[in-house]
Design goal:
single chain; 665 residues; alpha+beta; Aminopeptidase; 3 domains; five-stranded mixed β-sheet; 29% helix; globular
Length: 665
């Protein structure tokens, strides 16, 4: 063990002792319903220990004040409390501001264990460096997991990049990596290490293992681009863009995006949904929108939220609170709520930066997604189209309902699905809903049906200069924020069993709407597609079955604390019809519909959920694997997003494959 490693170990032990005493004394004080004395400050590391805290509030103004200290709070309206994860120092600030707080001892201990594991995992960083030349790395030798424990499911920046680069080598026609731009660190003359040493005091730098930071070139912003280039070619196809972990301490978003990207690629040709999505759409994942901040969050500076701008964002009184909140720095709507939706204080969690779009990370994302603003005010050259012709910071103009494409910004941790505008209703003359609210609210409630979250349009407080509002505001693209899970430091068992399966399912649904996300969610879902035989000889018929379901909305009125106007409600509609299509999507030129019949016990028009079936004649199908699409329509003549099933057709005289042997009992 090196001297620095030994010092780190001793320091970590002292942190654990200090914080254990802190949690115990705080819990006892609240059990006795007495005033808690100020928390002692033995050293900077103890002040940075993260606690799970319940904060009582009385009014919306209290929530808005809280938002400058903390973000992504989970609210309990009946109990008039919010659950937050904050440092011991931030807890002091809340108490000094008059908030009544209570520490959750058990959850705080879990967070401490999680962070301890993250520090151990980050020490493996060197094993995930890209090889130079023909040099082999340990990762190339084995795909076996290298870590166990409650924090092991979240890859470091380097590990996720390495895994994606490896995948791109294996599937060059399906996946590539595109440059997005530089981080603040990369725009400076000094290396990451020397920047931290220059601007941060020794009390903070002593917490950092500099060997675990990127080298002088750092980790750039990059996009993972996925789509079948053989079928897409030069065609203009619908595109889906996601940004993840724009707040450094949020682990879940980057991992969800990485896994969804991997699912799409690895299941191409084996899963019909993955196959048709990649044949007809293109996906752009910015997995780490704040990689420099993430590298600090992976270490002892576990509460780091913002980017690493240590000049314009330097907080002299609390250096670990330095940086700019990238999700308050986007140009559209920047500082449009007179200081309510973001802060001008560098030490606050929602510091908006010195000017609109001042941060290189923000500018790079706008450039990549939207392109360059032209003299007429419109954007050109980005991944998504600009179809909302509006003046700067115009909150009233809408986009055409036939917009193709979608933007999703993934965060944690509040179990919410949000869409524009993220500004309090009284800031917009009593109505914060956009002209495109009908379609966006429908898609939000469909997404919520899959992940079980609250689809509520607005969070509990004003947020201006956000990525979600900016992409909709500049382009008219349907835009959403999904707050994943219920903790920044979610244990892997919860992530694997709940957050991951729920949200990959919701992203798959969202991807199926890309052709018309303002329209398709207003129609029924096509689900449970099956064929009576997956492999048949040419000329043989198969029976196709499916469920057409218009009842997959998870409606919630929203939070009364942000106003009394409820979220737009979409009532389930009776099913009118369903059709099948062979190898072409319903909207493709020359698509020929094969009408499907409703089951006898649930006829068309009888309700919002109908089982349907039909016969598929294969006599005119060439040997090979075919996609059979199904799409349903409700009584309002709204067609929903299709889905597909595989059917393999063999030559007339070809032998059928043997059925799999049944296992002995």
């Amino acid at each position: 063990m090196t001297h620095s490693a030994s010092s780190n170990l001793l320091r970590k032990k002292s942190i654990c002792v200090a914080i254990s005493g802190l949690i115990f004394s705080t819990a006892v004080a609240f059990a006795q319903n007495t005033t808690v004395s100020p928390i002692p400050s033995p050293d900077a590391s103890a002040q940075d220990q993260i606690l799970s805290v319940r904060v009582s509030y009385e009014s919306r103004d209290d929530i808005q004040r809280l938002s400058h200290f903390i973000d992504h709070m989970r609210i309990d309206e009946p109990g008039k409390t919010v659950r937050v994860e904050i440092s011991a120092h931030e807890l002091e600030q809340l108490r000094a501001s008059g908030f009544r707080t209570e520490v959750d001892v058990a959850q705080s201990q879990k967070i401490k264990e999680f962070q301890s594991q993250r520090r151990q995992i980050s020490q493996k960083k060197s094993e995930f460096q890209q090889p130079s030349g023909n040099e082999k790395t340990s990762v190339e030798k084995s795909d076996a997991p290298l870590f166990n424990g409650q924090a092991a499911c979240y890859r470091t920046v380097e590990k996720s990049n390495f895994d994606i680069d490896t995948l791109a080598t294996q599937y060059p026609n399906l996946i590539r990596v595109a440059p997005v731009g530089k981080t603040w660190v990369q725009t400076q003359l000094l290396s990451f290490r020397n920047l931290l040493i220059k601007y941060l005091p020794q009390s903070v730098t002593s917490l950092i293992d500099f060997d675990l930071l990127p080298d002088s070139t750092g980790n750039s912003l990059r996009a993972v681009v996925i789509g079948n280039q053989r079928t897409i070619g030069d065609k203009k196809v619908p595109r889906m863009v996601t940004t993840s972990s724009i707040h450094a301490r949020e682990y879940t978003p980057a991992e969800i995006s990485t896994r969804f990207a991997e699912w799409l690629v690895k299941n191409y040709g084996a899963d019909p949904t993955a196959t048709w999505l990649l044949n007809n759409n293109e996906f752009h994942f910015i997995l780490h929108a704040n990689p420099d901040g993430r590298k600090l969050a992976e270490q002892t500076v576990g509460s780091w939220r913002k980017n690493v701008n240590l000049v314009d964002g330097y907080c002299a009184t609390r250096p670990v609170n330095s940086g700019v909140d990238l999700n308050r720095n986007f140009p559209f709507g920047w500082n449009s709520t007179a200081g309510q939706g973001s802060s001008g204080d560098r030490c606050n969690a929602d510091f908006r930066g010195k000017s609109a779009g001042s941060e290189p990370e923000t500018a790079a994302i706008v450039q990549y997604v939207a392109g360059t603003r032209q003299q007429d005010g419109n954007f050109e050259g980005g991944v998504l189209q600009d179809r909302r012709t509006a003046a700067v910071d115009d909150f009233a103009t809408g986009a055409p309902n036939d917009y193709e494409g979608l933007y999703i910004d993934l965060h944690s941790a509040a179990k919410l699905v949000l869409w524009p505008w993220g500004i309090r209703r009284d800031s917009l003359g009593g109505n914060s809903q956009t002209v495109n609210d009908d379609g966006m609210s429908a898609l939000g409630q469909r997404i919520a049906w899959y992940n079980g979250y609250q689809a509520t349009q607005m969070i509990f407080y004003d947020t201006d200069g956000t990525a979600m509002d900016a992409i909709y505001g500049e382009l008219g693209a349907p835009s959403f924020t999904i707050e994943l899970g219920k903790s920044f430091y979610e244990p892997c068992d919860t992530f694997e069993n709940e957050t991951y399966p729920q949200n990959v399912a919701s992203l798959r649904y969202a991807a199926r709407t890309l052709k018309a996300p303002y329209q398709l969610p207003l129609g029924p879902d096509a689900a449970d597609l099956k064929v009576s035989a997956t492999v048949v000889r040419q000329g043989e018929s198969v029976t196709l079955t499916a469920t057409i379901d218009d009842d997959r909305y998870l409606y919630n009125e929203g939070f009364s604390i942000v106003g009394n106007q409820p979220v737009t409600k979409h009532d389930p509609q009776p099913i009118k019809a369903a059709n099948a299509y062979i190898n072409v999507l319903p909207w493709d030129a020359g698509a020929k519909a094969i009408p499907l019949s409703a089951a006898a016990n649930a006829a068309f028009g009888s309700g919002p959920k109908v089982a349907v079936s039909g016969v598929i004649d294969t006599s005119m199908l060439a040997p090979g694997k075919h996609l059979i699409y199904v799409q349903g329509t409700n009584q309002k003549d709204k067609a929903g997003p299709p889905d597909a099933v595989f059917l393999e057709v063999l030559a007339k005289d070809a032998p059928l494959p043997c059925p799999p042997k049944s296992k002995a009992v």
